[in-house]
TrEMBL record:
Biased composition (Basic and acidic residues): 1-17
Claim: Transmembrane is one of the keywords in the record: yes
Protein name in UniProt: Membrane bound serine protease Do, quality control protease (Heat-shock protein)
Any Pfam family: PDZ_2
InterPro entries attached to this UniProt entry: Chloro_Bact_Ser_Proteases, PDZ, PDZ_sf, Peptidase_S1_PA, Peptidase_S1_PA_chymotrypsin, Peptidase_S1C
Molecular function GO terms recorded: serine-type endopeptidase activity
CDD domains registered for this protein in UniProt: cpPDZ_BsHtra-like
Annotated PDZ domain residues: 349-433
Ranges of Polar residues composition bias in the record: 73-92
Organism: Bacillus amyloliquefaciens (strain ATCC 23350 / DSM 7 / BCRC 11601 / CCUG 28519 / NBRC 15535 / NRRL B-14393 / F)
Length: 450
């Protein structure tokens, strides 16, 4: 009875294996049978050959089927050894990529560190010193008007900023910085990389672009920085700011960020009146004291002069720099003449795209392609070239000297780079939806150093 039961059990087992083989076409596992024993008479070569072929097939199946992504091991099947090998290879590949990324990041960091180390001797701190007024009471003691007040006639620190040495010539070195860093100074002090403090001379300044040039002896100057092209910048490009935020205690602080935006137009209040300037937006940290310091690309070239930030409590990472392509001609003009001779038209303006569209259509009479392109005139100065040419408030300037002017930045670029004082130019405007051209003779509005 036991033998019959075993035979029946063996038959049932074989039937189950046949059924499983039909339902599951994966390679079946067999136990030793009489037929298997007969096949062993072929000697040691055949199982070795079968093992080699079987191993090759198993690897081929693993590579080209979903089993390759399956990481659960079956302890009854010897195949997982190959699977483990493949999984390990994937992990190694992933780790190798991570290693390469880490190596690349480390190399990039090292490159920036080398650049910062090389350019840092060209970065300076600037201290604005002004004479403090004091008065004497009935007993002859002086009483100052502020916390920095001293006896009459003495200079006291009223502010500080940063700058960058961009030129050496004839025993002199020249520093570019912001006008608001040096404005109103009775004397200026420059702190060099080696800790030396030297007195600086104001060569020239320009309020409308917020730029100024200082002169010092080149005795302790070992490095100058060069300008790069701001027109080659792209949004997302890495940039580095270096300067003295909050004064000398944090001198030559380095912050890194990206170019957050290009060709931004911001309005600033200056001693020469309201001005709109073209700027680079960056999220590199810019703080009080960074003004006048350089915004650098990863090659160490000056691509901007850090000038301002939005300092509202709920705003972070929005700073602005004057593009190098705008800085260079101003710096050269200040070096040669001490001031900027620029054509003057005499209008207060904003980009038309900043004017609500319903106002453009309903009040200004604009439509279709006229919308959002051009410069909206808010006010025309009396006696100015614009007034003499017949321009009025609420006119839209869409062209100057044959070139389109979609923004105030474009208008200024054409005016300052493509026209001359005394020349007469065509100004194309839109008034009440109709295009017309006016002729305007440009005059000069000159600003001299104070």
């Amino acid at each position: 009875m036991m033998d019959n039961y075993r035979d029946e059990n063996r038959t049932d087992q074989k039937e189950q294996e046949v059924l499983l083989a039909k339902e599951n076409p994966q390679p079946a596992r067999y136990s030793a049978t009489d037929e298997d024993k007969k096949k062993r008479s072929f000697g040691w070569f055949r199982p070795l050959l079968g093992g080699v072929i079987g191993g090759g097939l198993a690897l081929g199946i693993y590579t080209f089927t979903p089993l390759g992504d399956h990481q659960t091991q079956d302890t009854s099947n010897p195949a997982p050894a190959q699977e483990t090998s493949s999984v390990t290879a994937k992990q190694t590949s992933s780790d190798s990529g991570s290693s390469k990324s880490s190596s690349s990041s480390s190399a990039n960091s090292s490159s920036i560190s080398n650049m910062v180390e090389d350019i840092s001797p060209a970065i300076v701190g600037i201290t604005n010193l002004q004479k403090q007024q004091s008065s004497s009471d009935l007993f002859g003691f002086g009483s100052g008007s502020g916390s920095n007040s001293n006896s009459s006639g003495e200079d006291a620190e009223t502010g500080s900023g940063s700058g960058v040495i961009f030129k050496k010539a004839n025993g002199k070195a020249y520093i570019i910085t912001n006008n608001h860093v040096v404005e109103g100074a009775s004397s200026l002090k420059v702190s060099l990389y080696d800790g030396t403090d030297v007195t600086a001379k104001l060569v020239g300044r320009d309020s409308l672009t917020d730029l100024a040039v200082l002169e010092i002896s080149d005795k302790h100057v070992t490095k100058t920085a060069s300008f790069g092209s701001s027109s080659a910048l792209r949004t997302g490009e890495s940039v580095i700011a270096i300067g003295d935020p909050l004064g000398k205690d944090l001198s030559r602080t380095v912050t890194q960020g990206i170019v957050s935006g290009l060709n931004r137009t911001v309005s600033i209040s200056t001693s020469a009146g309201e001005s709109s300037i073209n700027v680079i937006q960056t999220d590199a940290a810019i703080n009080p004291g960074n003004s006048g310091g350089p915004l650098l690309n990863t090659d160490g070239k000056i691509i901007g002069i850090n000038s301002m930030k939005i300092s509202e409590s709920d705003v972070e990472g929005i700073g602005f720099a004057i593009p190098s392509n705008d800085v260079k001609p101003i710096a050269e003009a200040l070096l040669t003449k001490g001031h900027v001779e620029r054509p003057y038209i005499g209008v207060s303006m904003i980009d038309l795209e900043q004017v609500p569209q319903n106002y453009q259509e309903g009040t200004l009479g604009l439509f279709g392609k006229q919308l959002n392109k051009g410069v909206y005139i808010r006010e025309v100065a009396q006696g100015s070239p614009a007034a003499k040419a017949g321009l009025k408030a609420e006119d839209i300037i869409i062209g100057l000297k044959g070139k389109e002017t979609d923004t105030g930045s474009e208008l200024r670029n054409i005016l300052y780079k493509n026209t001359k004082v005394g020349s007469t130019v065509d100004v194309k405007i839109i008034r009440n939806g109709k295009e017309m051209t006016k002729k305007m003779k440009l005059t000069q509005k000159e600003e001299t150093p104070s």
